[in-house]
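Listing S7. Sequence submitted for prediction.
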Amino acid sequence: MQEKRYSARSGWPMLVLALGAIVGGPVLFAWSIAAYPGGPTLLLFAAMLFVVGLVMMGGFQAVPPNEGRVLLLFGDYRGSIRASGFFWVNPFFTKKKISLRIRNFETGSHVKPEVKDAAGHVTSPMSRTQGRPSKVNDRDGNPVDIQAVVVWRVVNTAEALFEVNDYEDFVSVQSEAALRVLASRHPYDGEDTGVSLRGNPDEISAELRVDIQDRLEKAGVEVIEARISYLAYAQEIAAAMLQRQQAQAVVAARMKIVEGAVGMVHMALDQLAEQGVVELDGERRAAMVSNLLVVLCSDRHAQPVVNTGSLY
């Protein structure tokens, strides 16, 4: 359903006419009784003028910035007012307010409807609960807790009101569904060159925004940004995954240490040979390499044993 822009009249000239009819009707009515007693035509015109003025007062609309009005005439959609200002429209229009402001929410939150008493007064305004992470399985089947922040706004007032039942609830539910599907397509922390949830936040955010926008296309909503706000392994596997990450970090550190130690040993042997400090046979070279690697790769300070009895 396409949105139609409604060109509303300025409300100030119509306000003068409406007030003139409301004030002029009783004045004309009283004057006609005094000047032409028993003249039904003028009395009827005065009464109609007063009624028309009252009816015209129902057509005034003050639209603040970033807010719109959707206009219906006996169930028929006539257009939407998106400009801010003071306007006058057909008094018989049904006017529905809709916010055009930028809004955001966290997935996993729920809307609490407003509560009214018997007299119709609002006792508890509408509010949104704090979002909770959703538990989903990533591509490898690991349970993870994930949560996202979605920034959106209404761009098509007709679709937002008439294509879906409740567009705010529709945005919340579809964003949650898109987030779950996205998490199932990627691993939490990939070891290969693929995109992972933790290692590629920008790519994941862009993909999530596109997925949510595809689901909200018929609701007249534009997704400005969607970004992961919370990501962690589920509690039942968090300790095991932490140990695996620690082991991977230790292995990576050891590989770096060994690589540096081998380079240092090679450099030491080359310099000893070039400068002629000492001549080492194959057995002594092997022993020296072993001792240097122990000293350089050990996670504790080495305690050397000094031999002072012979050349070796």
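Caption to Listing S7: primary sequence and predicted structure tokens for the chain studied. The first strand starts at residue 9 and ends at 10. The chain has three domains: 9-97, 103-233, 238-297.
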